[in-house]
Structures are given as C-alpha cells and as structure tokens.
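ok trying again, last paste got cut off:
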Amino acid sequence: MNLLALDARWRRLQEKFGGVFDIGFDMPSAWPHAEPTAEAPEVSAGEDRLAPELCRLGEARFLHAILPLPIRGSDEVLYLAPWAEVPSESFYAYLDHISDGAPFTGSAARLANDLPLFPGSLGQEVTLEPGGEGARPLILATDGPLAEAQDEGISLDQLIDLYAAAGQDIRQALAADEA
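nice, full thing came through this time. structure:
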C-alpha cells in the first residue's frame, strides 16, 4: 500500500500535477556562456560546447546524468538530472556508447550542479553507472546526505521543498482548499 495516499497533499500532487515530476539542470554550474534554449539547445563559444547530453568546457568534460531519489511511503522516485564532471577517457567512452553502441561501464565523477537541499553537493564525488539502453548514466552517491537520501528515500516534505528550491513552488497548489 502507498502510505502517502493517506496524505491529502500527495493526492493533490497526483491530481494537479499528474504525480511526481523530474527536476533537470540545463547546464553544469560552471558553464559561463549563453544558456541553451528550446530553439538553440546547443551552445558553442570558442572551443567550449554545450549539448543536451555532453559538455566540454576548457579541459573539463561533463555528462548529463540521472540521480534517482526514492520517495518514502510510496513506490515513486524523483529523478534529478544534474551534470557530472568525468575524466576525458570516460567522456569519450560515453560518446562512443551513444554514437556506436560501444559499452559504457561507468566512471568516477563529481557533481557539477549544486543540488537543492543538499549543501556541498557541488563537486561531491559520485559514481556513474550505465543507465540502460538509450538512457543517461545513473548517479550513485557514495557518502553523505545525498547517499542517505538515495538509500532511505526522501519525505513528502523534502520533495515539496526540493521543488520550491528548484523554482517550482507547488505548496499553494497542494494546500487544502479553503471554503
């Protein structure tokens, strides 16, 4: 049984928003150039390049990845889509993977975005694992509050706070209707 079904806020999240929705990051925090848009999803500035899945910034290489956070009391998972800085050899192995289907076995990485509600997450060491056929790599935190959240899940209150911190404050929409 989904224990969160007993919480009116959870029911309104399902009704008003279709359930849990993902939080994405358009670029690594260090990206100093123009932001991508729907009309121009790829941005180049000199040798630097940002595409929806890959980024090159000077000598740094980044992959767009998925960080799953289970939600306690439900079968749902919040997926964050931050960027991770990887060694050059991992970057090119992933590029071969998406272009030729070559195996991608994962990589050590560092988070390249500051995740809401996880202070100090920018630069945190993580592990990337293959995400499956056609999917982005999965981020696994190895220690700290982020690893704890991946292992134990986040609460509904933390989910709502994450949305607010990411610019999607849904608190009013989830509040009980006043008559």
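cool. The radius of gyration is 18 Å. The helical segments are 8-17, 88-100, 144-152, 156-165, 171-174.
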